[in-house]
Write a structure and sequence with these properties.
Layout: H1 2-8, H2 23-35, H3 48-57, H4 70-78, H5 93-102, H6 115-124, H7 140-147, H8 161-170, H9 183-190, H10 205-214, H11 231-240, H12 253-262, H13 275-284, H14 289-292, H15 303-315, H16 317-328, H17 334-347, H18 354-367
């Protein structure tokens, strides 16, 4: 009968309950609260059993209980997937940890969570990696842990050097979104992808130098378009990578000479060699002369260079003829055009060796269409 009265007439224990209710009466009240947890709102001094019954039936009832004991707070947290932590004023770190362990995103209900708690929440979020969004003013340690697992760097306002470094270590391509990266960050990216320096927008000359010294032979090309030439960087590039002379616009005579002295093969990367460089090339390799010839003409080649080429060809006549004959004996007839081109190059110097005519005629004979054999009548 009392159970029915509880629902119909709350006033019997609305504000001031019976001073010494009997055990059976308390049990009946607990049963009533289990069925209708809202009843806890009208009980001025509920017992532990009543409070427990209320939060186990509806954890949100915790907000209506004044000074709930620790066991009730824990019960509310366990039965609400941790969300009841928002109803606890100044919760202990143990309660905060219980809430976050129950469900990591509950950290959003905690003011000024400790570093330990933030790290626990971030580490527990192994699937979505977005718990950082639920933390107000996350600490650097938590951010670093998150970005190392792929949390977007662009979502972090004013990232520190350590945070940016962690992000680049996770994804070196992020270097392209970092303005004026430090040496450490640039190198961290470069260690993972060799083209990292090329991704840096408007790199400073210091970064270009760092890239060159780190092993990037293309670094001289990363300078902003229209930037004033930097002779110091150009020289460093050629000293480290002689072939990079071909990447430098209008290299000085001194720079060309440096490249060739460092590595003769770099001479083939110079688009507009000086006369001195041309003479150096021809002296070592007469066929270098062919690179100076434009559309079968020598009109733009200095007389001294043409004379030097002629002398160089004459000095190496025997080996040159031997090479042409070897190409002539090749079963691949596509080599014939190259032989004819080489013969023309030699003649441009004024040379007229009889052997050249013989080889030329042999090629023309080989290339001449063969007459078809007539079929005999049956």
């Amino acid at each position: 009968m009392l159970l029915i009265n509880l629902f119909e007439a709350r006033r019997s224990f609305d504000v001031v309950p019976q001073e010494n209710p009997g055990k059976s009466t308390n049990n009946e009240i607990v049963q009533a609260i289990e069925e209708n947890p809202d009843l806890i709102k009208d009980i001025a001094n509920p017992t532990l059993a009543m409070m427990t019954a209320a939060v186990e039936s509806d954890p949100d009832m915790l907000q209506w209980i004044k000074n709930p004991p620790l066991s009730v707070q824990k019960a509310a947290i366990r039965n609400s997937w941790g969300e009841a932590i928002r109803f606890i004023e100044n919760p202990s770190e143990a309660l905060e940890l219980l809430a976050v362990k129950t469900y990591p995103s509950n950290i959003k209900y905690i003011k000024n969570p400790s570093v330990k708690l933030q790290l626990y929440a971030v580490k527990s979020d192994s699937i979505h990696n977005n718990i950082l969004d639920d933390i107000q003013n996350p600490c650097e340690e938590a951010i670093i842990y998150a970005v190392r697992r792929g949390y977007p760097l662009k979502k972090i306002k004013n990232p520190t050097e350590a945070i940016t470094l962690a992000a680049v270590q996770y994804d070196p391509n992020l270097i392209k979104y970092i303005e004026d990266p430090s040496d450490e960050i640039a190198l961290a990216s470069f260690k993972q992808i060799r083209t990292a320096f090329s991704y840096i927008n408007n790199p400073s000359d210091h970064i270009i130098e760092l890239a060159l010294r780190s092993g990037d032979s293309q670094a001289i090309t990363y300078r902003p378009i229209g930037a004033k030439p930097n002779p110091k960087l150009e020289r460093l590039s050629v000293e480290l990578y002689p072939s990079s002379i071909g990447l430098i616009r209008d290299p000085s005579p001194e720079l060309q000479k440096l490249a060739v002295n460092k590595n003769f093969e770099s001479i083939y990367n110079i688009s507009s060699p000086t006369e001195e460089i041309q003479l150096l090339g021809i002296k070592k390799d007469p066929w270098y002369f062919s690179r100076l010839v434009t559309n079968g003409s020598i009109y733009n080649i200095p007389e001294e260079v043409v004379k030097a080429a002629k002398d160089s060809f004459n000095r190496k006549k025997r080996s040159i003829i031997r090479g042409l004959l070897a190409d002539l004996k090749s079963s691949d007839k596509s080599e014939y055009n190259l032989v004819l081109k080489n013969i023309n190059t030699i003649r441009l110097t004024g040379i007229e060796w009889p052997e050249l005519t013989v080889i030329e005629n042999s090629i023309k004979h080989e290339l001449k269409p063969k007459p078809r054999k007539k079929r005999l009548p049956r």
